[in-house]
Design brief:
With 198 residues, this protein is an alpha+beta fold. Helices cover 28% and strands 26% of the residues.
């Protein structure tokens, strides 16, 4: 039986998705092999697309990464068009991934609790765009210390020392777009009318 184009495309993405999930968690192939009982060479071939994914291989990997199997595989939607987001606790912050494909720009919604207000500056490759949905956010970026409110956005190179968290007496809710390879996010607005300029 021949696979549909959607299934063929999903299968082709399994390897890169597995590699991305492992890299996001900072897990080596050796560590994953120890956690799953799958040999390092099999895991490497699976990530490279040289080994066909099977349930016997994918279930232990999903369990080791603590992610649902359908998220790990990126199975095509069947029937119901609604997207169900699964919140996760990531270093004390509640994050909801809004994109499902590995690589490229990643979108997240995050709620940063009040107790996460102690700055810990860090640097890494990439480019980030933040938009404040509710609450007040403090952004420390190199020599800048900025407080932002709902509707405000910031864009920066993550190779600069940075930290962001709540600035007021309540959690801050944000949208984040992050490009690991340094992709810039371009926000386009409608041109102002002549009446607005007057």
């Amino acid at each position: 039986m021949e696979n549909s184009p959607a299934i063929t495309a999903a299968l082709a993405e399994v390897g890169p998705r597995l590699k991305w999930v492992r890299a996001q968690r900072g897990v080596t192939l050796t560590e994953l092999a120890a956690a799953t009982g799958i040999s390092k060479s099999t895991l490497s071939r699976l990530e490279a697309g040289q080994r066909r994914p099977s349930l016997e291989l994918l279930l232990p990997i999903a369990q080791a990464h603590q992610v649902p199997l359908d998220e790990l595989v990126g199975a095509p939607e069947v029937g119901d068009p609604r997207v169900r987001f699964t919140p996760r606790n990531h270093h004390g912050r509640i994050v909801v991934p809004l994109t499902r494909q590995p690589g490229g720009l990643q979108a997240w919604k995050a709620i940063i609790p009040l107790e996460q207000n102690e700055p810990e500056l860090r640097t890494h490759e990439g480019y980030e765009w933040l938009y404040v949905l509710s609450g007040r956010m403090r952004l420390i970026l190199a020599d800048h210390d900025i407080t932002m409110g709902p509707g405000e956005a910031a864009e920066f190179d993550t190779r600069l020392p940075h930290w962001f968290g709540p600035a007021g007496d309540q959690p801050v809710e944000i949208l984040s777009l992050f490009g690991k390879q340094g992709e810039h996010i371009h926000v386009r607005a409608a041109p102002r009318s002549k009446a607005d300029k007057a």
